[in-house]
């Protein structure tokens, strides 16, 4: 009478991810399904196994056929990130790409995937038309932009990177056209904490229940101080985002140290942007990853083998850490990958790399309850153990669902 993932024991490094339940199955008449064979299976993890969904936006809108890539994507992930880079989302003032992104969000949600928007406020890939405006007008328009997106995507987007890379924001200088960056200019005037408050308050004004993250690549003490200042100023953020693009090599134990450091604030830690290469590594002396430009950056057999091993280590470390709530991989495919790097889990031609299989074995095998036939007792009960998440019960042609929370529980599921 047991449907279980791997047995839980004192040495289980993932015990904090698991639930144990005695589930009572009821028939259509409300009576227990006594001594009945049922099938129990998991349908979703509570933990966020994420990946950007940029490559599937056209597919979701019916303007491209990416069925193979979509199947691979859905075979691993339950959390997607959609792009709201202002300069691409609204390159011409007053003409945002709302409808296309709404349809993409609906497509993912219809398939049981949570949706995150990235980002609401950022000084990079911002709207160029904003730069020539006076700072007071910039502030008004930024506030309107945040409220608009939070409103238009309420019920579709579950969480946002409310503001991205605030540590460097006031100091950012990149003016190829000679016009000062409007967002950085505003950040210098308001200060970092007030920029965070702006993004958070305006988003909550439109969607009070949305989850909001502070996200950064600067993982120094400066980011810790900013978080402290934001919390001391009573700005309510829901989680802390930590970027870990590993173009220069796997960070290993440093990942655990990051989860420790940024978990000290009592908020969930989200590893928001993760990449591991399946080709040559970027030279260690490159400070800004964007400065490394090569004609081609191929995936190699040796690199793919290394990537598969490192992906498994990466996910085991972070899923095994109680402070971590999600991991988002920054690109399932090499096609169009950030900086042209071979970071994908499938090659540009669509063939899976070994890393895809390595992750699949963890997420949908070791950490998953596959369809399992069990027989209820005389009271219609069956024991279920596994990673917390959503489950389905099937008896003959009838189905029902229940949630398996962390710890012990006694859910009842109507099968009919």
TrEMBL record:
InterPro entries per the record? GH (IPR017853), GH10 (IPR044846), GH10_dom (IPR001000)
Give every GH10 domain span.
63-362
Query: Which EC main class describes this enzyme?
Result: hydrolase
What protein family does this chain belong to? Belongs to the glycosyl hydrolase 10 (cellulase F) family.
Q: One of this protein's Pfam families, by short name?
A: Glyco_hydro_10
- A biological process term (GO) from this entry: xylan catabolic process
**Enzymatic reactions:** Endohydrolysis of (1->4)-beta-D-xylosidic linkages in xylans
Write the Enzyme Commission number(s) for this entry.
3.2.1.8
Q: Which UniProt keywords apply?
A: Carbohydrate metabolism, Glycosidase, Hydrolase, Polysaccharide degradation, Signal, Xylan degradation
**Annotated SUPFAM superfamilies:** (Trans)glycosidases (SSF51445)
Q: Name one GO molecular function term.
A: endo-1,4-beta-xylanase activity
Q: Can you name this protein? A: Beta-xylanase
